[in-house]
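Late entry, written up from scratch paper. The run itself happened at the end of the previous shift, but nothing got recorded in the book at the time, so transcribing now.
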Amino acid sequence: MNARNFIAGLILASAPSLAFSQGGDSPSEPPLSLRSAIEKALEQNLGLRIQTLAPDIAEEAVIAQEASFDPSVFSRANLSQSDLDWEDSNGATRQTTSDSRSYSLGVTKRIKTGAQVTASASQSRSDGSSFNSELGQLVGGSLSERASLSLEFTQPLLRDFGSEVNLAPVRRAKSQARVADLRTRNAVLNLLQQIENAYWQLSDAHQRRNLRQSNLELSERLLEEARERERLGLATRIETLQAEANLAQRKEQIIRAEQAIREATDALYAAMGVLDETMALDPQLTVYPLPESRGEPPSFQTTLDTAIERNFDADIQEEVLEQLEQDRILARNSERPQVDLSLSSSYNGLSPESGKDAFSEAFDRRGDDWGLRLSFNLPWGARAAKSNLRQTLYRIDQEELRLAEIKQDLLRSVRSAWRDLDASRQQLAAAAIVVQLQEATYEQETSKYEEGLSTIRTLLETQRDLDQAKLSLLDAQLATVQAEITLARVEGSLLDRHGIEWNDTLTSEE
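Output as recorded:
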């Protein structure tokens, strides 16, 4: 599967998954939507782009393994010439020359049973005379053309016999390709979780800054009132100092809130893959406010069943076991003796005139020969092969236990995420009630202060209690959203949460 097609296969559904009606901080520039952030991340996130190359690499590995069964063409050519000056018994100087040439062309192919088939055609040419020192005389002296058409078949009978053994590397490579696909899917889900968490953390930082800004404006009004009351003799200097100290604290909180926004913005930009050296040190980015709770989730059993069905980690581990099974097949194969049977046959032609005539003789089957060869090889004791088999069996046991551990971890994660979401929802409801009570208390205390029945210190304490209640509400809102994201990730439903569908299928074994 092509990696670029893999990401192109992520289709955003027409219905928005998280369309909120709340506005952003800047009316002139619309806030960045979560959908836009996800689209940009799927396109430009560096980690995802790195991972999406893995399926391409794995597919090339499959092609490389399948190529071992492709036919290959070979050819050879030899040329030799010699000149010899010698003296005969009468002392006369004689010269002998020889010219020898040979050519061959053939094709060989490995088939799934382990056999090797080779078909070839060859031609040799010998011309001239040569001196044989053993005979003490000239030999040859005439043109000789020889042609041969041959076929050789070699079949392993024990080791490397059968398609189960010879296709094991191909099956292993295909399993690795499926693992690359599954890991890329996991990377997409992890990125969706990262993007949504970063988005809502930035939203939370903006809302906290807005709360701090509102408190700052309120503190400025309280300071003005305190100064006016001091001028009229209705308050002491200490109350004015308390109001000034409160205002300074609010300004300090604003500084920390602005810094939190900058850090959260960088985190979101980095997840989207758009953070670079050209970006301003103080980027301005607005997002939508934290959403309300989505309502009741499916039952725990439904969530667990969905998580088990969509657990890519378990699927990856199953593929690891499949690869080890192929290793086991190869390890058992290595234990077997090497017994090869080779059959060869050829038609030959000989001509004193030309190579064409020699091939005509070969095609007419004027001469033939055949051969049969049986070879045997077995390392004494086969200790290395037996050790490799035992190691493979131990690894299979190890990975089966790891698969059980993955499934157990999934169960624990689903249970934990479910509990976290349930607890977060309860805390959110309680925090909302606390805010209502603190707002009523603050309004009552403000009325008493304006009537001179309360001090500014009491009013500031009430304001801090209200601020803390609102911050706790923001904490509860963010925790609830993050719990929903975590449960959706564990369940494997993040795609559904964002209206995204896979538009491709995993590589299947042929």
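The chain is about 55% helix and 20% strand.
(Scratch paper discarded after transcription.)
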